UniProtKB/TrEMBL annotation, chain A:
The lineage of its organism: Bacteria, Bacillati, Actinomycetota, Actinomycetes, Kitasatosporales. Residues 305-387 form the NADH-ubiquinone oxidoreductase 51kDa subunit iron-sulphur binding domain. InterPro entries: Nuo51_FMN-bd (IPR011538), Nuo51_FMN-bd_sf (IPR037225), Nuop51_4Fe4S-bd (IPR019575), Nuop51_4Fe4S-bd_sf (IPR037207). Belongs to the complex I 51 kDa subunit family. Coiled coil: none annotated. This is NADH dehydrogenase.
UniProtKB/TrEMBL annotation, chain B:
Its cofactor is [3Fe-4S] cluster. InterPro entries: Fe-S_cluster_ET. Keywords: 3Fe-4S, Electron transport, Iron, Iron-sulfur, Metal-binding, Transport. The keyword Electron transport applies. It holds the Pfam family Fer4_15. It comes from Streptomyces kronopolitis. This is Ferredoxin.
Amino acid sequence: MTRIDSLTPRETPGVLGAAPGVTEDAEAYAATGGYRTRTAPAELLARVEAAGLRGRGGAGFPTAIKLRAVRDAGEPPVVVANGEEGEPGSVKDRWLLRARPHLVLDGLLRAAEITGARRGYVYLSDATAAGRVRRALDERPPRLPVEVVETPHTYVAGEESAVVRRINGGPALPTAKPPRAYEEGVDGVPTLVANVETLARIALIAARPDGRHHTARSTLVTLAGAGTDPLLAEVSYGRTLRTLARAQGTPEPAGVLMGGMFGGLIGPHFLDLALDPDTLTTAGTALGCGAIRFLGPDECPVSLASAALAHLAAESARQCGICVTGTGSIRDEVGSLTTGTAAPGLVSRLHRRVTALPGRGACGLLDAAAGTARSLLQVFPHLVRSHLDTPCPSCVAPAAPLTVAVPHVAGRAVPRPRTAPCPR
Amino acid sequence: MKLRLDPTRCQGYGLCQEPAPDLIDIDDFGYASVVADPAPGTSEDAARAAVEACPNSALRLER
């Protein structure tokens, strides 16, 4: 079972809240300072910008720039809380929607005020989360219409253009860019697609402006390793990966798969790196959505890379020929290493693939596959060589699953709504 | 001026490269990628020919 813990200093604002195992109701949320509207939208935007808040969906784009682009795009925009968490190793978004729906909705309403939006959406696939969000909307009807849109759970369904396409009535599949959602999104109008944790942090900055720097510089991470339970944690930037590995229960990892599948593999000599998006990017890896998978001492990096590539290839939206062929080819090459049956020339062929393929698909799935294989070649070249024609005993055993279970969040009996729900 | 390739439309016919070898690369799998932006006057005609050559309208020329 996935545990939940805070690794942030006491008395600092956090998104985990006081009772992360129970759904927070409107009254409890309001008692934390939520839903108060004393801050003017322009002032809140200035605070978000000064604090340096960045998106928590994976790309880490500065939130204030995105808010301003949508606000200034010309037409009344639409805001979307994106809770569709496609990375199998990440649970934080689904936990957040299940446990603290009001924090996310408050953030969505603040984003609507900042951008001038008149409509909002909550986009997700998790049925439990959808129930908690609907109940929260009934409990405290929002000032503008907010619709819950559900999607099938796939790796690419949370990608920005897939979100827009699904809300517009199509399949949850990415489209070619441009246009970007902030230019032309839901119903053709400028659209803010913001990760639910990003919105939660906007709400937290509104409620606790004094703690805004801390709020912008801490993040939810899903930590997993072999042998022990995964850990959903809130952590301040600057803690080392080694600290996180110990907290999760894999004290001496043989390697780490970073950022879901977007940061690639890193070796044990990187464990002293600080958790900070810029530090990790400079080191050639990525924080991504904060999903971090530590390799146990008995696990093989080749096997983990192979499992990740098999997942990506299976989850290709099959829209781009180059993704189907390219991701499939990388999967097969790395898969052949796990059985010691590599075809001649594998290393040079794989090097060519990982250089030529990034940036070629409509979404980032092909990039994730190429990045995973590239990191395997760069960080573990000796292992790649030893796997070429000799079966590896660790790779024979089935790889530990990439999927982390979402923590159980108990529902709470909700009192009858005090006001009539707004007509939709 | 930009030559844009929609990867969801490229089926790997490879017909775009012949009229615009300096702008388009065909990879090991047969799929196209744009490697240079067309320059007005010199490679503009080649880019236009590449756009017209694609049976699946995967290429678009943007000003």
